[in-house]
Amino acid sequence: MVVAMDNDDGRGKEMAGFLIKHHLGQLQSIILSSDPRLHYPLHVDFAELMDDNPSLAHLIFSQPTEYLPLFDESAIWAQKVIFEDFKKMVNASVKTYVHVRINICGSPLECPDSKFIQRWKPETPSPDRHSVLPRSVLKSIFLYIIRAQGYRRNTATSFPVLFSAAGEALGLCKDDLVDIVKAGDDVIVTGVLTAKWSSDMKDVRCDLDPVLVANYVRRMNELKSDIDIPEDIIMKFNQFWSDFKDTPLKGRNAILRGICPQVFGLFTVKLAVALTLIGGVQHVDASGTKVRGESHLLLVGDPGTGKSQFLKFSAKLSNRSVITTGLGSTSAGLTVTAIKDGGEWMLEAGALVLADGGLCCIDEFDSMREHDRATIHEAMEQQTISVAKAGLVTTLSTRTIVFGATNPKGQYDPDQPLSVNTTLSGPLLSRFDIVLVLLDTKNPQWDAVVSSHILSEAEQRKGNHDEDLNDIWSLTMLRRYIHFVKGYFKPVLTKEAEKVISSYYQLQRRSATQNAARTTVRMLESLIRLAQAHARLMFRNEVTQLDAITAILCIESSMTTSAIVDSVGNALHSNFTDNPDQEYAKQEKLILEKLSCIDDFPVINITEGSLLLYVCIAKVITSPPSATPL
Q1: Among 58, 156, 412, 601, which is disulfide-ready with 408 (CB 3.0 to 4.6 Å)?
Q2: How far apart (Å, rounded) are the C-alpha atoms in residues 169 and 158?
Q3: Is this prediction's pTM over 0.70?
Q4: Cα(24)–Cα(409) distance, rounded to whole angstroms?
């Protein structure tokens, strides 16, 4: 039943008046549109409607199948009311196909092709069957859910758990809502919950499946975070850095102590985790190519070195995360797979697609087959997945951070390259910004300190300096801090930072002991991302020489052979120092002395991120010393 415009209660006129009052601009834009055959959406905020006319909002909420079509008719009538002002314009006309879209949260698991809807199927009478016209027996209700978070994160979910135990539901999009979402997108959906009959077969009971007939769909890929940061928390961040204005590195270490506090020490790993989660600034170079801002981290270490602990804690820090293992993952499970349902093919999103805008943790990375590892090359660098399966050709976004953990193949041999020790290919290793090697070597002093820390954690002792800092930087506070610095700061490299990064990259290319799999143009991009991430961690909008030196130290820690710092040591035994600013001064002096040998090289502007510029840098470095720089 559709309520007519001339009904006694005048609801149609109330709707038209509401549209003219609050959405006059949208109505004018629709009237001035040139093509009258298109379907035009008219977006309405339900909260705004509730404030303006609560009784009308209640009717739409309780009887959506009757009053939503009336809302569409009211939009046409509202156009006629204001059309007098546009009569003289050539393209102005009253559009017939106008749909009022009233503003539920999840990721579309499957996106089949567009097709026609069969509302009912008349049956032909037969001697043993009656003539029936099956229809839904469930009463339709209007659902209005904002940012619903009750869905399972370990499976590909499409709508909240209120629909089914698996957290999935079928959504039906019509008219202008067709083809606006892809598999893996986060969406807010407003619609009418109804039911459809399953396929009727002889001697099989016919079931009803819930269907959400969408009235409004909004993609949320750019607004993924569900973290609300109050103003008083931001004031605490500012006050914290004001207190550590004279000793900024001590303040940074106070934040790092809150990362995975159950693991003692491992300063280098905690710094790498923080920089990876924060990431750099994504930008577009002069040729229009997007340069990713997300960093990737790989931990290579012996069993029992805390790799899985860091993976789980990082997943808690990220506002969106997917955890999987290499042994139970395939190329289709990581990227996307084509499945057949009811005679048609559709795409089902994998772990990397579902983690778009967040973090994808892959434990036991070495357990994956070589073919499966090769499928994530495009996802890690280009941040997309190109699919051409079963007649479906599309490109899905995978703007995710990849955090991997793996064991070395047998006993780790420092004399062999990283690709031999891990059985990972060079192209895959070059895509990781940081690769840390955690070797469980014999060190009686370190073993005594670690055992004491574990026992104190078991006894739940209080009053420790580390525990006091953990009370300040709790898990919730760390999540808010990482989210805030990622969204607020867009660091820009200074001339000093550019010179340090450029000189270090050239020195690495010259080094006779360089790791060919790691020393590529990607390492230069990694240095920029890590320096920008450290500037964000330090609550700054400018990348200074300190940030560049710290990025170099992270890269040095991930090398099997160090080109500059000969005393980096084992990342597993790295600990927090009492005076980090003094320790940094020593490392800065050492690195600048090593880089002084190539001061005759020109300072290269690397902030633009141009691919052509990177090629020019490589040509300068690989040319003989007597050659004229480009």
Answers
A1: 412
A2: 6
A3: no
A4: 67
Name the pLDDT band for 542 (thresholds 50, 70, 90).
Answer: very high
SS3 of 505, please?
A: helix
Which pLDDT tens digit goes with each residue over 143-202? 433 332 222 222 223 333 333 333 566 677 777 777 676 665 667 777 777 777 666 667
**Which residues make up the CATH 3.40.50.300 domain(s) of the chain?**
294-441
* DSSP symbols for 76-111: HHHHHHHGGGGTTSSS----S-EEEEE--EE--SB-
Contact yes or no for 209/164 (Cβ under 8 A): no
Amino acid at 357: G
Helix (H, G, I), strand (E, B) or coil at 546: helix
C-alpha to C-alpha distance for 341 and 111, rounded to whole angstroms: 11
Dist CA 515 CA 319 (whole Å)? 35
Q: Say how far apart CA 269 and CA 469 lie, in whole Å.
A: 18
Nearest to 398 by CA among 410, 411, 381: 381
Exposed/middle/buried for 149, CB within 10 Å: 0-12, 13-18, 19+?
exposed
Question: Around 54, how many Cα atoms within 13 Å sit in the side-chain half-sphere?
Answer: 1
CB half-sphere exposure, 549, CA atoms < 13 A = 20
- φ, ψ dihedrals at 256, nearest 5°: -65, -30
Q: Looking at the domain covering 11-101, what would its CATH class be?
A: alpha beta
Write out the CATH class of domain 294-441. alpha beta
Quick one: average pLDDT of 310-317?
Answer: 90
* DSSP E strand stretches across 369-413: 384-389, 392-397, 401-406
Residues of 414-426 as b/e, b for ≥16 C-beta within 10 angstroms?
Answer: eeebbbebbebee
More confident residue, 136 or 40: 40
* CATH 3.30.1640.10 residue spans of the chain: 11-101
Distance CA 115, CA 122 (A): 20
